[in-house]
Amino acid sequence: MNPAASPERPALLQRIASLLHRGASAEARTLAADAQRQFPADAELARLHAMALMQLGQREEARRLLLQAEAAAPDHVDLQRDLAAIALDEGDREAAVRRLRQALQRAPEHPALLHDLGQLLLGLGEHDKAHAAFALALHHAPREPGLYLGLAAAELERGQVAQAAVQVGEALRHAPRLAAAHALHGHVLQAQGRFEDAADAYLRAAREAPQEPQHPLLAGQMLDESGRLEDAAEAYARAHALDPASGSALSQLLFARRRLCDWRGLGDLAEALRRAVADRRTGIAPFPFLAEDADAGTQRRCAAVFADAVERRMEPLRRQLDFRYAPAAPDAAMKVGFVSNGFGEHPIGLLTVALFEALARDGVLDLHLFATVPDDGGLTRRRLAAAATVHEGAGLDPAQLAGRIHAAGIEVLFDLRGYGAGANADLFELCPAPVQVNWLAYPSTSGAPWMDYVLADPVVLPVTLRDGFSEKVLRLPRCFQPNDPGRVTAPAPSREACGLPARGVVFACFNNSYKINPAMFARFMAILQAVPGSVLWLQGGPGQADERLRRAAATAQVAPARLAFLPRLPHADYLARYAHVDLFLDTLPYNAHTTAVDALWSGCPLLTCAGRTLAGRVAASLLHHLGLPELVAANEDDYVETAIALGSDPGALATLRDHLLRLREDHPLFDMRGFAVDFRRAVQAIGARQRIGRPPIDLDF
């Protein structure tokens, strides 16, 4: 009897398919195996049996069954799709593409085959070919919403955001409750910079598919981007509850709560994150992990797992671009590039502008700045543009920006963003320059094979931390962090105008709120309790962070009124407030960086404690190079005792302030001409090694 004609067959196939859909793989395998003895030549039955085996992890047996079925039914489209899926699951995208193209020779207009081919081509970075596959499929299945979504995804990758919006609209017209369509609508709105609208689209997707954790996670990221951090934290919490194994949801939730000073369950979340990093779980963002109590080796593990995911995603595009580097003439000025989203009134711009001006006066290096955000029209951006060639890169995708960097002939390229907001990992993975350097904005290792060097100094990156870095290490003889000795400070307002009492010691910590953890806050409270009449001045945080800190102070038996909060101010006005600060209290495990040098330049003494990572040693480096090691506490207890002693000794604080104000006149820490000389020597050394074909090595200058 023909198996296809058996009256039992349709019900049997439907039952097996239903079991597979419910995840009852073992039951489906048993039923399919029994049925195959009854219908040994049934290709569809063999395919379903193979799918059950695949779900149970028995890939080789599944492949054997599928190949046997293919020999009997070479025109069976779903068999070809499943064999392509196995090849894709094994990481062989090219083999999957070949199989689908062979199947299309038999069924050249089959929409499902064209859809699968389009998805694979997207993954290979062949966006135009993917677009063509989806368009042809739609011609034959014009009511299929999944094909509109595929076409929209291809349009997004091609930079055609408006066309992507049109295709998503068509998908929603045919399937208004399709969660995937609302999610892709969110991607389109995100690409348009409409972050709140994107959040709404992701939340709509979450309502349509309430068990899918990715939708609230993406909504949280857009709410975060929109400044609605309290709402973002709730969305992250939903994503984490739906998928506790998600490294991304866990790390985003923990970082949101740290920024909000919402310490509910913080210890358990932090411990879970450390375990996830130890297990090399994917999706954990390296930048938020810098705020966790971890050593440099653990930070490297976190970054390496993240970098590996970036590399696997971008590798097809990198192979397509296949950048080659033309040899520079021996006497040609070395072209040095810097990529950042901070070339303006931003910590990166404020730290580097005087250095670039000094390098421009030196005239030895050919400087190029690649700005990934629009010109903010501020003074810092104008100064940067006068010192270097600025390339506007806002709105360019990684491949487009990489092409411009490569076309400019950049020999040494610095990443001044790392894994923070506006990260450039996708760009640097494409290797648009032959030598790439991690510096300044991301104070840890990239863990990435595409990053050749990290620029540091002997204090922030001592020999004891060397194994925590994947890059070769360049150590400057001075603090690795430049600054602008030409800062402009506004006149200081009165203490009362700042919300401070007329009398009493003012301790301050203007670090970001995520750097103030419960243990650090407890030290602050112990200091306030021991110095009568003192107050703690903090940078205002997002959402309800300030109110939470007031409540935490009350719990620690400190009057909430002894906490003052500084709003976000223009830089000159912010600097003016240091006139009223007697002692800056630094944080662990993540120090003040830009804020630390602002305080010291303003004459404000700073107390720190050297941590066990680069992020926790920057303030120690600044104080070491200033010749003030006594302000680097030996441990946390010494930190509290020193703060109390200084807070109780107005004469000592006045002496330190006077000393710091004198140092800024001619101290090497504020000498950007000298910094430029050391920096140029380092760049020339690594660039020269590349020109003569020598590999990167550790170098101390």
CATH architecture descriptor name of the domain at 335-484 and 676-700: 3-Layer(aba) Sandwich
Mean pLDDT: 95
Helix content: 40-55%
Strand order of the largest sheet: 3-2-1-4-5-6-7-14
In whole angstroms, the N-to-C terminal distance is 84 Å
Principal-axis shape equals globular
CATH class of the domain at 335-484 and 676-700: Alpha Beta
Number of DSSP helices? 30
Q: What quaternary form is this?
A: single chain
Task: Explain this structure.
The chain is an alpha/beta fold and 701 residues long. Among the domains are: 335-484 and 676-700, Rossmann fold (3-Layer(aba) Sandwich); 496-667, Glycogen Phosphorylase B (Rossmann fold), CATH 3.40.50. It is built from 30 helices and 14 strands. The protein is globular.
In a few lines, what is going on in this structure?
This protein is of the alpha/beta class and 701 residues long.
Question: What keywords describe this structure?
Answer:
alpha/beta, Rossmann fold, 14 strands, globular, six-stranded parallel β-sheet, eight-stranded parallel β-sheet, 701 residues
